[in-house]
């Protein structure tokens, strides 16, 4: 959709929030709780990337709802962020901040923080 913007953000609860703009981010008229995207209780950064060729929106983020940052998953939306579906586990152990990129072959690249000890990311 031309001039459409979707913002996926952490919240102060265990669910992420989404904001929608149809005027190129001048106004955000629709702000919703994304019930299928859970996060640690104090939130954590996630990453969103859109593939224009396939009209798919990807999200990587943590799905542990306690204060521990573990279980980084990849989700996909085919309806501009209205609903999300689990795709793949990226890291089941200690993990945190991630960044998605669309590769030339249309696959998704993921850069993320990973740790050996729960709560202490080291790379």
TrEMBL record:
GO terms for molecular function: exo-alpha-sialidase activity. GO terms for cellular component: cytoplasm; membrane. InterPro entries: Sialidase_fam, Sialidase_sf. One of its GO terms (biological process) is oligosaccharide catabolic process. This is Exo-alpha-sialidase. Gene3D superfamilies: 2.120.10.10. Coiled coil: none annotated.
